């Protein structure tokens, strides 16, 4: 479906959740868990909706309720102006962990739904083979799931859903059990199918915790808040397809949603309206604060300016080793590099001249002004009564942007800088961050 | 079966070998059918005590194959029956919350009632049911094997249904698989492996029950069914050591043969139902399974049957597609549930009251206390047995489990020894006890251990194998040795498996006490003080209140022990010492 025709088609409600609430009752009834509270959600024909939320926002539960796999505690789900009271035959689900039957071949797995509907064997097999071809698995019909890689298994999951020609395709974190490259590959194929208008389903509902994935694929993003899950806001994604992740608009939107996700109290419109560049979460170069100071002093001793190649030679480092330092001093506004030449700014000179306490003061000022990640950390820390927070909280957030290894490195770099600036304290043993203004917690 | 074994046969051999293979398998098939018909005919012999009795057992070794076949046939009738029972029972219990609350405790109690204690009740009932035919005794014997298998299998099926991954259930729902389809595609396949393993273990235990039940001296009369068990009994009566030896040889042989012809192929076949997402390395091997896969005749027959079945199913008028219903959500406990629980409790109380009144018509409280004392004596034997067999078999099992070659040999051997009906060895033991004047009160512990101890070995081998190689390497690099190594790694690692093995051994020992506390050789009869001997005596006399008291007492003790000791150990093992 091309962009234009899609816009035209959007409108008729296909599946609608009205005031959907879900409570998981505990045995005694005393600690009932409210997972969803009065959620309204409409899936219209021709649109791709992403349900975005952190873990514990009940997004997967909402998907199951809308698919009729689980009854809501209160509220109702309407499809074709009828109340949904059982697994909805108009919906096909793609599961996070594939949910393939290990003892059936790829073909039999894909045929399972057709056979259940009484489609004769030969016809079902023919349709299944077509669906298998469509997801690029031709030749694997008689393979068993355990012979396939994760990505191929999820392709079988898609084929099983496609062959049903459902009105709505529901995807429950379909790419999150796959490695980064495979996920990216499959994601762009799904995107291509959707854009080419050859998609089998009229609408898609996807659950994800990955902001980029949501912005890349969806027409509309529904952001869910946590405990209890409720709709915090709906964001229309009006970016032209195919979408370019590197584009400014894409970046701005992901950053805005990122802000919403990390800040439970901010309103959706508010977060998206502000256009300050601060919010742009550029990756931090992996350099220690001490290294930055040392580097600035060397440039200063060199007369406040120098050729990068010369500097790296002097330091007996390759240019690749020096680049993170250059990035860092630029990010912090201590120097500007251009055409292989680096010049200290006034701040940079002041920093190089300052004693240790003054230096920390200058560094602190630059961080607060220029490093959004540390600002987010500080804001979150101050919003907590205990003035302390577990490192995993931020690493989870960073995970949505970076690989988990990189998320950990980003976090450690930010902590190193902030500690140097005496903005926060960190206990590596317990992995807790503390606000030092509260007095020595350690 | 989509896996075709044809490719495994060298091309050059295709001309002769496949045809020969087909011929061999075909003849084997015909032979089996004919054999069953021939042996099975004996089941319908007239029987109307005390005038018309089955032909007496002939100790001529040439008659032995026939007797073995009769016993084996009983085993093979009991197996599908218990499978069918357990599928229905487990399915209902897993799908109906209310039924579950009644059915699972019942299963718990049934598992604790000694199998041989059932026998006295059922023989009378079955003889009455099949008046004038040997089928009554036959059915009672089959039922004894059934009771040794069914509870076990039902529990295994129930647990495997409960443990199904939620996503797979949801996939079946969203793709509109009805109850039958879900059963066929998901629930049954995912239970194949636990069913096959449990089936194999309890089938092994069945040899003991079938042989013990063939010659129960019951209700003042000796009813003997033709079979290997009664062959041994007669041999013991006549002090014919040679015949006993022949019988031991025969039973050993038939255990190996059923293992090769039934359980090995089943295990190899069940491998395809493994819930694994990636290909494991260790595929169980079976020559018969390979042969069946390689045979064109078998494959063609299978595919033809599959095609015809599908054609039939599609030729039938198709019912219109109806969306499946929503799964029922467990709601708040309401007054219906409370009433239901109360009704169950009331029924149980009434039953217990009636049972107690029946017992008390003839028996005073003093004797009840006396049986409690006897239960204590048997309990002491069981404890001693579990301790001794653990002391011996834990080190041996660990040593074997750490050496893959030995482990591959050790587990089947342990299973063979566990399957071997220990009562066949009792005559030798009795002779030795008499000769060396070993008190039977101690000796019966040894007899009970004959069959039971192997479960400890079997499970410990499995446990040692399951300790990750990485942890053993860690222990080696940190120089853990001797007691430290045992305390830090081996004992915690095998604990869960030991609990399973020791529990099974204890259960087997309680059962065995009924035959092990009273043993005889010719006219020498040794009797120990214990609950087993009490039940055996009451059964022989047909003393119903005492049978009820003895069996009830044993079931009560076993249930209590399960609830207090074993459950706690098992939970501890799962909570603290789980290595997965």
Which percent range describes the beta-strand content of chain B?
under 5%
Query: How much helicity do the residues of chain A have?
Result: 40-55%
Determine Rg of chain A (CA atoms, Å): 26 Å
Overall mean pLDDT of chain A: 85
* Unreliably modeled segments of chain B: 1-13
Q: What is the overall shape of chain A? A: elongated
Count of discrete alpha- or pi-helical segments spanning 4 or more residues of chain B: 21
Structural class of chain B: mainly alpha
Tell me the number of helical segments of chain A per DSSP (H or I, 4 or more residues long). Answer: 17
> Strand order across the biggest sheet of chain B?
1-2
Order of helices and strands of chain B: HHHHHHHEEHHHHHHHHHHHHEEHH
Strand element count of chain A? 16
Query: Which structural class matches the secondary elements of chain A?
Result: alpha/beta
Low-confidence stretches of chain A: 1-8
| Largest inter-chain contact set | A-B, 42 and 38 residues
Please tell me what the overall shape of chain B is.
globular
How far from one another are the termini of chain B?
A: 32 Å
Q: How would a textbook summarize the main sheet of chain B? A: 2 strands, antiparallel
């Amino acid at each position: 479906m091309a962009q234009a025709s899609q816009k035209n088609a959007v409108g008729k409600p296909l599946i609608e959740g009205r005031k959907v609430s879900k409570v998981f009752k505990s045995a005694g009834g005393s600690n009932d868990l409210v997972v969803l509270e009065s959620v309204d959600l409409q899936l219209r024909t021709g649109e791709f909706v992403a349900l975005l939320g952190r873990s514990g926002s009940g997004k997967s539960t909402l998907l199951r309720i809308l698919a009729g796999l689980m009854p809501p505690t209160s509220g109702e789900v309407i499809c074709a102006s009828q109340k949904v009271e059982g697994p909805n035959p108009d919906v096909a689900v793609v599961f996070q962990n594939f949910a393939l039957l290990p003892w059936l071949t790829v073909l039999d797995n894909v045929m399972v739904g057709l056979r259940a509907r009484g489609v004769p064997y030969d016809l079902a097999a023919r349709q299944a083979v077509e669906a298998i071809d469509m997801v690029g698995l031709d030749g694997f019909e008689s393979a068993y799931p355990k012979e396939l890689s994760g990505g191929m298994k999820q392709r079988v999951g898609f084929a099983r859903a496609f062959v049903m020609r459902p009105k709505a395709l529901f995807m429950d974190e379909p790419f999150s059990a796959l490695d980064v490259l495979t996920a990216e590959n499959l994601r762009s194929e799904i995107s291509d199918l959707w854009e080419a208008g050859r998609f089998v389903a009229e609408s898609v509902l996807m659950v994800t915790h990955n902001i980029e994935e949501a912005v890349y694929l969806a027409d509309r993003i529904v952001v869910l808040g946590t405990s209890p899950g409720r709709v915090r806001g709906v964001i229309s994604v009006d970016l032209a397809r195919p979408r370019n992740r590197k584009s400014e608009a894409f970046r701005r939107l992901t950053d805005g949603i990122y802000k919403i996700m990390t800040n439970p109290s901010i309103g959706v419109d508010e977060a998206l309206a502000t256009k300050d560049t601060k919010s742009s979460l550029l990756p931090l170069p992996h350099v220690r604060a001490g290294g930055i100071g040392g580097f600035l002093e060397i440039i200063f001793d060199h007369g406040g300016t120098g050729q990068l190649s010369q500097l790296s030679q002097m330091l007996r480092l390759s240019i690749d080793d020096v680049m993170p330092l250059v990035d860092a001093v630029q990010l912090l506004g201590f120097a500007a590099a251009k055409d292989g030449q680096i010049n200290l700014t006034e701040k940079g000179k002041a920093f190089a001249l300052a004693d240790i306490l003054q230096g920390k003061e200058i560094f602190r000022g630059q961080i607060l002004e220029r490093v959004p990640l540390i600002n987010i950390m500080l804001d979150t820390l101050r919003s907590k009564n205990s003035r302390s927070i577990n490192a995993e909280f931020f690493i989870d957030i960073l995970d949505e942007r970076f690989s988990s290894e990189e998320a950990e490195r980003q976090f450690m770099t930010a902590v190193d800088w902030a500690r140097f600036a005496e903005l926060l304290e960190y206990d590596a043993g317990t992995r807790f961050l503390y606000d030092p203004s509260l007095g020595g917690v350690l | 079966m989509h896996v075709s074994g044809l490719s495994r046969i060298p091309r050059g051999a295709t001309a002769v070998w496949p045809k020969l293979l087909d011929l061999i398998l075909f003849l084997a098939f015909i032979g089996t059918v004919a054999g069953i018909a021939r042996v099975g005919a004996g089941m319908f012999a007239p029987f109307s005590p005390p005038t018309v009795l089955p032909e007496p057992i002939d100790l001529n070794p040439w008659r032995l194959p026939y007797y073995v076949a009769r016993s084996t046939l009983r085993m093979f009738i009991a197996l599908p029956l218990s499978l069918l029972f357990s599928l229905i029972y487990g399915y209902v219990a897993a799908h109906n919350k209310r039924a579950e609350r009644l059915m699972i405790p019942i299963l718990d109690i049934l598992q604790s009632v000694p199998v041989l204690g059932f026998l006295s009740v059922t023989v009378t009932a079955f003889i009455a049911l099949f008046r004038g035919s040997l089928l009554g005794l036959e059915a009672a014997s089959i039922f004894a094997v059934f009771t040794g298998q069914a509870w076990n299998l039902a529990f295994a099926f129930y647990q495997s249904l409960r443990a199904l991954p939620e996503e797979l259930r949801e996939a079946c729902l969203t793709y509109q698989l009805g109850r039958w389809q879900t059963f066929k595609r998901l629930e049954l396949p995912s239970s194949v492996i636990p069913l096959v393993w449990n089936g194999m273990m309890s089938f092994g235990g069945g040899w003991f029950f079938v042989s013990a039940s063939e010659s129960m001296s019951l209700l003042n009369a000796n009813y003997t069914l033709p079979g290997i068990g009664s062959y041994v009994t007669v041999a013991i009566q006549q002090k014919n050591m040679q015949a006993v030896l022949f019988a031991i040889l025969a039973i050993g042989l038939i255990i190996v043969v059923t293992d090769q012809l039934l359980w090995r192929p089943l295990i190899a076949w069940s491998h395809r139902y493994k819930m694994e997402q990636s290909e494991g390395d260790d595929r169980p091997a079976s020559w018969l399974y390979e042969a069946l896969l390689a045979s064109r005749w078998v494959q063609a027959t299978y595919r033809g049957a599959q095609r015809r079945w599908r054609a039939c199913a599609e030729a039938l008028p198709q019912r219109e597609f109806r969306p499946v219903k929503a799964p029922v959500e467990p709601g708040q406990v309401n007054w219906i549930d409370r009433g239901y629980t109360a009704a169950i409790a009331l029924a149980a109380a009434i039953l217990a009251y009636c049972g107690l009144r029946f017992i008390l018509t003839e028996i005073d409280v003093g004797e009840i206390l006396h049986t409690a004392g006897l239960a204590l004596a048997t309990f002491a034997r069981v404890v001693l047995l579990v301790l001794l067999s653990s002391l011996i078999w834990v080190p041996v099992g660990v040593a074997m489990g750490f050496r893959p070659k030995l482990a591959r040999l050790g587990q089947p051997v342990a299973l063979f020894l566990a399957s071997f009906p220990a009562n066949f060895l009792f005559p030798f033991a009795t002779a030795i006890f008499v000769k060396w004047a070993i008190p039977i009160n101690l000796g019966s512990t040894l007899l009970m251990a004959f069959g039971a101890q192997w479960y400890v070995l079997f499970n410990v081998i499995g446990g040692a194998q399951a300790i990750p190689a990485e942890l053993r390497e860690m222990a080696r690099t940190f120089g853990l040795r001797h007691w430290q190594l045992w305390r830090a790694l081996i004992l915690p690692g095998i604990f869960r498996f030991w609990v399973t093995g020791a529990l099974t051994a204890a259960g087997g020992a309680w059962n065995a006490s009924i035959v092990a506390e009273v043993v005889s050789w010719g006219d020498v009869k040794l009797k120990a003080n214990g609950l087993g001997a009490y039940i055996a005596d009451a059964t022989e006399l047909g003393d119903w209140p005492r049978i009820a008291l003895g069996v009830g007492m044993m079931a009560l003790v076993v249930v209590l022990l399960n609830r207090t000791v074993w459950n706690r150990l098992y939970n501890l093992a799962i909570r603290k010492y789980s290595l997965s």
